[in-house]
Specification:
The complex is a heterodimer of chains A (about 400) and B (about 260). Chain A has about 400 residues and is mostly helical. Chain A contains 17 helices and two strands. Chain A has a two-stranded antiparallel sheet with strand order 1-2. In chain A, β1 and β2 form a beta hairpin. The radius of gyration of chain A is 22 Å and the shape is globular. In chain B, about 30% of the residues lie in helices and about 15% in strands. A three-stranded mixed β-sheet of chain B has the order 8-1-9. A two-stranded antiparallel sheet of chain B has the order 2-3. Classes of the chains: A mainly alpha (about 400), B alpha+beta (about 260).
């Protein structure tokens, strides 16, 4: 009895859980308001129909890319040393895709018809392909996460038969990794193509977006996996972390950022070679207009250049704080990139009617309900990860738990 | 158990799995639902090809077309299927550009819809299936003409334009779906069933065309060389909006060239 009293005493952990739970409740209330009153409570308009939730949706999917990357590295390329990171990444992926689907549920006008994409196929639509891939990949993630959920001590003690069943999919890990790789490459790049195929918005209408989306997603996914691992071990001293595998993955991430910077630079500045109505105005919005701080500071300097320099320099990289900063920057940079991409095509309205050259601008700032529900979804993710670290030990570089 | 048996079993497993996956990939697409709704009994055949011609010389920007459209299609006051842009002055008078859904022959909205809720009718009209739409608004993102409106809120009030500007002859759309101009397909279909000619007989003609006091709008069948639209296009120079995008709009414009000629 005394022990139990002690357990509920306020400490850092329970305060953190309490705050997240409160934010989640606020998010649920905001979500119910959205369902009850409709999307009229948002600041979205017919000119800017995709806003904060869509940005959060595509960011969550991008940052979940660590799951397929690490699983492919471990189970297809045979880089066994990354296995602990693959476990963390897989669970982050499960949480990330859940968050993305919650965002979509809020965002679509008829949430009760979310299943239509699986039944009514329009094979010409990239968004249909994304819907199918996300649905299938979520299934893969659930299969991959069953052995992780089977690590819960309570479950292992009380229901060993169930745990045995849950551990079984681990035997098919290479097949799941292959399926995950195919599905992820498909929809991660198709999310870029979702914007890239839109002929009506010239700033989007280019082939580079699909490539950039997948490159940035892999970088962001690697960064978030390592960031989450390090933060978990900082707050929970019981967690054993192998620094050398993080260091090795950090170097890979550094070189990935070089590739990404090159692609981004080429893709962005090649737009200045010619003039196209709408596209060049969009470019100006990006590099000199309302999105310019986001672009230069968020995406390029903090998002790519700074972490690239830190991660590729051995002396800087080996300082734990700098390395942590680098990972945070990459994650933030990917989110900034998604926000900018989503906004830039909508802020520039191509007034095509009277003359080809006429272009006008609009603006968007999310409403309180949008922000509160988005924070709620984010808190859900953080809460799920915190509990998974504590009870499922998803961040654990020690010896493997022997199967039941 | 010797090793050979195990190998054989593994081999057989592999063969069966790959055959099964091949069969699945081969046959699964056939099990899918058709992308567009199955044609109903009264759905149009391909014998007509509807189009609209708007004469900018005649349009004086009165906006009757917009009001008649909102009344006839029972749109919420926030939503206009038909809209009007005012341009620079030519010969002392402003030029007006009325726009609506262009009913593109290669419509971006139809290609991008993830559930096939936007589709082509056989007579060329781009239609919405409101029961299938999930409200993702990708079609709004994709439409180069800003022709689509989303029902951000439900419309339960009385339509202020009824009955002055017309009587609604379609159901209201629910909250959370996208809607747009249908070329008043309900009038066309009901008119054809009664033996009327859309574009000639008022009851079978889109509301905006009926309402125009300047007769700036002409509607008719491109498949019929003697229809009003075919003749107007044969006799006058015309253009379409953003033709360079390859969307193939079904609304044609007669420009204000004649005004320029008078001046010179």
């Amino acid at each position: 009895m005394i022990n139990r009293m002690k357990a509920v005493k306020l400490n850092g952990f329970s305060a953190w859980i309490g705050i997240l739970a409160l934010l989640m409740v606020a998010g649920v209330v905001a979500g119910l308001v959205v369902f009850a009153r409709g999307l009229v409570v948002t600041n979205l308009t017919d000119l800017v129909p995709w806003g904060l939730w869509i940005t959060m949706d595509i960011s969550a999917i991008a940052l979940s890319a660590g799951a397929f990357t690490f699983c492919a590295a471990v189970y297809l390329l045979g880089l066994k040393q990354f296995r602990p990171l693959a476990r963390t990444a897989t669970f982050i992926g499960l949480i990330g895709y859940s968050m993305a689907m919650l965002c979509l549920l809020l965002d679509i006008g008829r949430p009760e018809r979310f299943w239509h994409g699986f039944v009514f196929w329009n094979t010409h639509s990239v968004l249909w392909e994304v819907t199918m891939c996300v649905g299938l990949y979520f299934t893969v993630l659930v299969m991959e996460s069953l052995p992780i959920l089977a690590r819960w001590k309570l479950l292992r003690e009380r229901y060993p038969v169930l745990v045995k069943r849950m551990e079984a999919p681990h035997h098919y890990a290479p097949y799941l990794a292959a399926a995950g790789l195919v599905l992820s490459l498909l929809h991660q790049s198709s999310l870029g193509a979702t914007y890239g195929v839109i002929i009506s918005r010239p700033i989007w209408y280019r082939p580079g977006l699909a490539v950039l989306f997948i490159a940035s997603a892999i970088a962001g996914g690697l960064a978030l996996t390592m960031l989450a691992s390090i933060l978990a071990s900082r707050f929970n001293t019981l967690i054993e972390l192998k620094d050398e595998i993080i260091d090795r993955a950090a170097v890979v991430l550094g070189w990935l950022l070089v590739v990404y910077l090159y692609l981004r630079f080429w893709d962005t500045f090649a737009m200045t070679y010619t003039y196209q109505p709408g596209r060049n105005e969009g470019f100006d919005v990006l590099v000199g207009g309302p999105l310019s701080f986001n672009f230069w500071a968020g995406e390029i300097f903090l998002g790519i250049v700074l972490p690239m320099l830190i991660l590729l320099n051995r002396r800087l990289r080996t300082q734990p704080l700098l390395r942590l900063v680098a990972f945070i920057c990459v994650v933030g940079g990917v989110v900034a990139y998604r926000w900018d991409t989503n906004m830039v095509g909508q802020l520039v309205v191509r007034g095509a009617f009277l003359s080809e050259e006429m272009v006008y601008y609009t603006s968007y700032l999310p409403s309180a309900v949008e922000i509160i529900s988005a924070v709620g979804i984010l808190s859900f993710g953080l809460l799920a990860f915190t509990l998974a670290v504590k009870y499922l030990r998803v961040v654990d570089h020690g010896p493997e738990i022997s199967p039941v | 158990m010797n090793e050979k048996t195990v190998q054989r079993r593994e081999f057989l497993k592999l063969v069966i799995t790959s055959m099964a996956s091949f069969a699945a990939l081969r046959w699964l697409p056939r099990l899918r639902m058709p992308a567009a709704p199955l044609p109903k009994k009264d759905e149009p055949d391909g014998s007509h090809s509807w189009a609209m011609v708007i004469d900018q010389e005649r349009c004086n920007g009165c906006g009757y077309c917009i009001k008649a459209c909102q009344a006839s299609n029972d749109c919420s006051p926030d939503i206009t299927w038909s809209s009007l842009y005012q341009g620079d002055e030519v010969g002392g008078e402003p030029v007006y550009l009325p726009v609506a859904c262009m009913h593109c022959s290669h419509a971006p909205c139809v290609s991008v819809c993830p559930v096939g809720a936007s589709y082509y009718r056989a007579d060329g009209i781009v239609m919405m299936d409101y029961d299938r739409c999930i409200g993702c608004r990708y079609c709004q993102i994709a439409c180069p003409y800003d022709a689509r409106s989303f029902n951000w809120d439900s419309f339960n009030e009385e339509n202020p334009l009824v009955p002055e500007w017309g009587e609604p002859d379609v159901e209201r759309r629910p909250r959370g779906v996208v809607e747009k101009c249908t070329f008043c397909s309900q009038k066309i279909d009901r008119g054809l069933a009664r033996g009327l000619v859309p574009g000639v007989d008022q009851q079978a003609t889109p509301a905006c065309v009926q309402a125009c006091p300047q007769q700036a709008r002409i509607f008719g069948d491109l498949n019929d060389p003697d229809s009003l639209v075919s003749r107007a296009l044969a006799e006058n120079p015309s253009y379409r909006l953003l033709e360079n995008l390859g969307t193939g709009p079904r609304i044609y414009y007669l420009p204000v060239d004649r005004l320029n000629e008078e001046q010179s």
